[in-house]
Structure formats: C-alpha cells, structure tokens
Design a protein that fits this description.
By secondary structure, the protein is an alpha/beta fold. It has a single domain, classed as 3-Layer(aba) Sandwich (Rossmann fold). Helix content is 42%, strand content 12%. The protein is built from eleven helices and seven strands. Strands 4-5-3-6-7 form a five-stranded parallel sheet, with helices on both faces. The chain has a two-stranded antiparallel ribbon with strand order 1-2. The longest helix is centred in the C-terminal third of the chain and has 18 residues. It is globular and about 65 Å long. The termini are far apart.
Length: 276
C-alpha cells in the first residue's frame, strides 16, 4: 500500500481534542505581513494579553511558591511568558519525549499535548513499524514532515516528535517557529528502558545498543541545535525531568526576550513612554 505524501493534513477530529483549551479562546487569522507569529499566523489571546509582565519565579526573591497546603506550580507561569510559542521535544527513541511532554503540558494548564508519531498512525491508519516494513524509512519521514507542517500552524502546544525528525532540513523551518528542547539520554539508559522493542523498527537488529550509539553519533550535531538541552540521568524520573525543563525554560525566556520586550527596553532607554 502506498501512502500519499502530497496532501496529508491533520484532521480536525485529531486536533480538536488537543488544541482547544477550556481555559482560553483565541482567534487566528492569516497574516500576510512580515513578522508572523508561530506557524505563520497572527493571533490574539484575550487572557495572555494582560500577562506580559510575568517574571521568572526562580529569580524573584519575593515570589511565594506556597506551602504544603497550597503550592504555586512555576509551570503555570510559563504560558504567559511564552506568548503562545510551541514547545518541540526532540531526542532519541526511548528518551521519554512523549511522557515528559505530556506531563509538562498538563502542568502548564493552558497548553496542549500533541505527538507526531501518534498523528502519523492516525492519519495513515497504520502502525509506524508497518510503514517502515512496507514502504521504508523515507516514506515514513515524508509523512512525518507533512504532519509537522500541519501541527506547527497551531499555537500553545507541547509537541513530542519522532527521533529522526531532526534529520530533514525542511523540518527545522517548522521546529524553529517555537522552542526546541532536546532530551539528552545516554544509549545505555535508552536500552535499559526499551530493550529490543518490536515496535521500534530501527532496533530490529542483533545489537540494538550499537544501533542506538550509531544513530546518536549521526544525529548529535542536529540535536545540538536545540534551544534547550536537558541531560537526563538514570536517577531522574518524569517529574524530575519536567521540573528541570520548567526552570531551564524560564531562564531561556530571560535570555531570549520576545520582540516587544526589546522594543520596550529601547524606548525606556531613550526616555520614551511605553504605551501598554
């Protein structure tokens, strides 16, 4: 069976359950001018429009994280600071992208989780291992690229991707519309997690550890292009990993402020009033 890779799109039935948040509504309109928002769209969020001054809670000495009875999750403060930008998780198979991305989205509250591998299987009605077996890796990569092309047009998403999505140059033009997070996990830890998983087509060889090491060596320079690198060790569980990501993202936003903050700072330096 040949899968058409010319006009693949993500059906509304797949997207709607993830994209529309019960806590927020936003309008999307085609943007024809330079400086489009995430995915080439200009969008307005009535909730976050008033939250542009949210600070990094880890660098604010006056911030109250609460106590055992009521705690404030710093993940909730990421959403207004991200201004709708998507978060893309990359990394080797078995590094935990799906579970970590899903957990982060849940803790953020107003962001939603998507997984490109799950969408590929939904739109083709075929497992990834079957696509590899019947059509080959190149066919799968073509479908994967078009799924990414579809989902990147949405905002406020945490997106888990396939391990090889970084290998196609065209995919980076989509990934770089958001913030890319690399979960860096050693080959030995990956193998201890997934072994010779029959659902991992690239591991169906005699020495899966050798394959993981070779793939990581081949892709490492691509993973290194991520905005945030998270080194995951054997002692870290999903919560530990997500906690580290939340802190690193707050720091990354401080170091890479959005355009409006740069304009505001310049105006203030020049003694001009900033119009909210």
């Amino acid at each position: 069976m040949m899968y058409s890779v010319l006009f693949i799109f993500v059906p509304v039935s797949i997207v709607s359950g993830f994209i529309v948040s019960p806590y927020s509504t936003f309008s999307i309109k085609q943007n024809t001018c330079i400086g489009a928002g995430a995915g080439g769209f200009e969008w307005e969020d009535p909730i976050e429009a008033f939250d542009q001054e949210v600070e990094n809670p880890f660098k604010n000495n006056e911030f109250d994280f609460g106590d055992d009875n009521f705690k404030v999750d710093p993940a909730r403060l990421l959403s207004p600071r991200l201004q709708g930008s998507n978060l893309y998780f990359v990394g080797m198979m078995g590094c935990g992208k799906t579970s970590v991305a899903n957990s982060l989205a849940r803790r953020m509250g107003t962001y939603n989780f998507l997984d490109t591998d799950t969408i590929v299987e939904s739109v083709t009605k075929t497992s990834i291992s079957e696509i590899f077996k019947n059509e080959g890796e190149e066919s799968f990569r073509a479908i994967e690229a078009q799924v990414l092309d579809s989902v990147h047009a949405y905002v406020r998403c945490v997106i888990g991707t396939g391990g090889g999505i970084v290998c196609r140059l065209q995919n980076w033009s989509k990934l770089q519309t958001g913030i890319v997070i690399w979960l860096d996990v050693s080959p030995e830890l990956i193998i201890s997690r997934i072994g010779k998983d029959p659902n991992r087509p690239l591991l169906q060889k005699d020495d899966p550890l050798l394959i993981i090491k070779a793939l990581l060596e081949e892709r490492k320079k691509l993973y290194n292009q991520a905005d945030v690198r998270i080194e995951v060790t054997e002692e870290m569980n999903v919560d530990d990993t997500v906690n580290l990501i939340i802190r690193e993202l707050h720091d990354f936003i401080d170091e890479n402020p959005p355009a409006w903050e740069k304009v505001k700072a310049k105006a203030q330096e020049e003694g001009l009033d900033w119009v909210q």
